[in-house]
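[scheduler] slot 2 assigned
[scheduler] job type: sequence-to-structure, two independent chains
[scheduler] chain ordering preserved from manifest
[runner] begin chain α
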Amino acid sequence: MLKHIVMWKLKEFAEGKTKAENALIMKENLERLVGIVPEIISLQVGINEKESDMAYDAVLISTFANAEALAHYKVHPEHVKVSNYCKKIRESRAFIDFTE
């Protein structure tokens, strides 16, 4: 199993919405991919609850069978739509992929 974890720091205001509003939209859109993108084994999105300069605003924890399945997920049209929105609202992004 391959774990794919992504963390975002979001802009205070983007796409006409606050950071909190965009975090919720991002969470809902990512969670909606379950059942649409067949390669997703599991997917969870969390929104940070603690203020800190070191904290990220949102995290995605997802599981795929292998690197090939993750590659298919990344180019799936519905994921691309969500990813494009995330690019517009983020300040920065960090990720890690590892095999369990």
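[runner] end chain α
[runner] begin chain β
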Amino acid sequence: MKQSILQYAMEGKLVKQNSNDEPASELLKKIKDEKKQLVKEKKIKRSKSLPRISEDEKLFDIPENWEWVRLKDITNFGNFNSVAGQDIQEGSWVLNMEDIIKNGGGFNKFTIKKLNDDFKSNKYIVEVGDVLYGKLRPYLRKIEIAPKNGFTTTEMFPIKVINQNLISPYYLRYVMLSPYFANRINGSTYGMKMPRVGTKYLASMLIPLPPFEEQKRIVTKVEKMMALVK
């Protein structure tokens, strides 16, 4: 039932469309302009444009005022900032894969770095509102919203939407938890014992993008229905 709710949400069947909402096509224009500005300010790196989405790629029908986009089009994907493990200050929040419950179940714990902790590997920097996506064994669907600033293992991507007034990170999380997304990712992994999703593949994943106001309505509706299912 939970999976059906998410799939209906992705197809625009969970809440009504409102003709007064600014269409997703206008959101994309604003996001494109903002990304150019971020590149100009050297906050993100300029990257190659991804291929245009063909009609054959589109996975299902979506409402007229929605748009199909790629994950990299609306996020900072590929611009993750890292830090050497030994440079992380004592008292910082450090997230490991085991700290997240599978299937979007929340957090197990929050590891706080102590003076004698010795992290041998680099960590990604995490900021409040980042969508944390576990690339290792993605079928576990360890996907959450960062509740505070900190650091994470590089087996987890801290994905930042370009502008939270244009794209809801909570909506993006539900997209990544949905059946169509998980099924396509699981069919693309490499490695037998410890499968991972490829960075390029994830960057090009298709996202059904509604108007911003509808994104918020979908999140509210999904949360209410999930609570009833529980």
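[runner] end chain β
[qc] chain β: The two ends are 10 Å apart (CA to CA).
[scheduler] slot 2 released
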